[in-house]
What we know:
Helix 4 (107-113) runs parallel beside helix 6 and helix 8 packs across helix 12. The protein has helices at 13-23, 68-74, 87-97, 107-113, 122-129, 150-177, 180-194, 215-235, 239-242, 245-254, 259-263, 270-289, 308-326, 330-333, 336-346, 366-381; strands at residues 6-10, 28-36, 44-51, 55-59, 80-83, 104-106. The chain folds into 3 domains: 6-194, 2-Layer Sandwich (Nucleotidyltransferase, domain 5), CATH 3.30.420.10; 200-289, Orthogonal Bundle (DNA polymerase, domain 1), CATH 1.10.150; 302-381, HRDC domain (DNA polymerase, domain 1). The chain has 16 helices and 6 strands. Helices cover 51% and strands 9% of the residues. By secondary structure, it is α/β, with parallel strands linked by helices. The protein has a 6-stranded mixed sheet, with helices on both faces. The protein is globular, with a radius of gyration of 24 Å.
Amino acid sequence: MQATLERIYVESPEQLHQVCQRYAQAPVLAIDTEFVRTRTLYPKLGLIQINDGNTLALIDPVALADLSPFWQLLENPHIQKVLHACSEDLEVFLTAGNCRPVNLIDSQIIMAFLGHGLSMGYAAMIAHYTDIELDKSESRTDWMKRPLTTKQLKYAEADVEHLFNVLPLLMADIEKSGWLAAAQEESDLMVERKFTPIDESLLYRNIKMAWRLSPQQLYILQQLTIWRYQQAKQKDRPIGFIVKDHTLLAIAQVNPANVAIMANIEGVETLDVRHKGNAMLSVLKRVNEEKNPELPEPIVRLDEYPGYKQNFKKVKSYLGKISEQANLLTENLASKKQINQFLSWHFKLNDAEHNIHLVDVMRGWRKPVCGDKLLAFVENDFK
């Protein structure tokens, strides 16, 4: 542990340039961000924390219009960046700087490979390696408000101070386990997913009960969800703030001709109609006037596929045996969602047979560990 850790608050371009020059020479950086996301689609970046073991900097993005020196650190392949549970941090990097980090590894993913479950919190990880109990009382604070309090600053510093200090133990453990390359691959995969553009034409599949709709109704729902997402981006509001899911589903089922009919549909929110009724009618009018639109295929429910429950249990049980041999938790090999992903592909449901590259157990480190064995198992066992 570093005896004298320099702590600085960065709020001028000159300070930012100097500290990032210093960090550019570091082999490893512990990084975290604080952000606010209550009534917006995109997270608002409130603070950036960095520690290289010598200097712990809190960078103020509210005071700094240009964060280019920081984005360059994230894109520097010669520096390993370590963050904990960084899915939302990645979103911040994407939306605030259009910056895709390289050579990044997530310490929560490392802890998962060490047998601590898929979602171990930062405080629990620090407690595992030290006798320190972290104060998490500031986790819901307003990081956009200035000036930040002393308590907020101490909280923010702790997020990268202790992370850097436990890194030698953490990395030694994962290297000893033999799963470092897999943990790195999982971290890379998370980055890849966050930076893969959303296919707006498929958003309708995320609506619960969409499987109940006919192809024509699904097409209406598809166009409504595209419209809603574009509105959310334009106004920077959560999609549920634009219109609720159940409102879109009910409107897609009925295809009302006017706002009065729309307002009386069971399941439709009154406020949704009041604020967005005419806009949704415009979408319906355009859809109804289209000649020969390309309708989506009906959605087949995996849980209603013949023998699904028995086959799911068989797969989970078989993965349990593989995980024991691999000395991993079963959920590391495949979560329920990933098992269902595999089964949808195997049963060729909802166009899944054309998307083997999206089936997690059939790619990357999982394929030789469990994917190939699982495929042979189901081909022999599923009748």
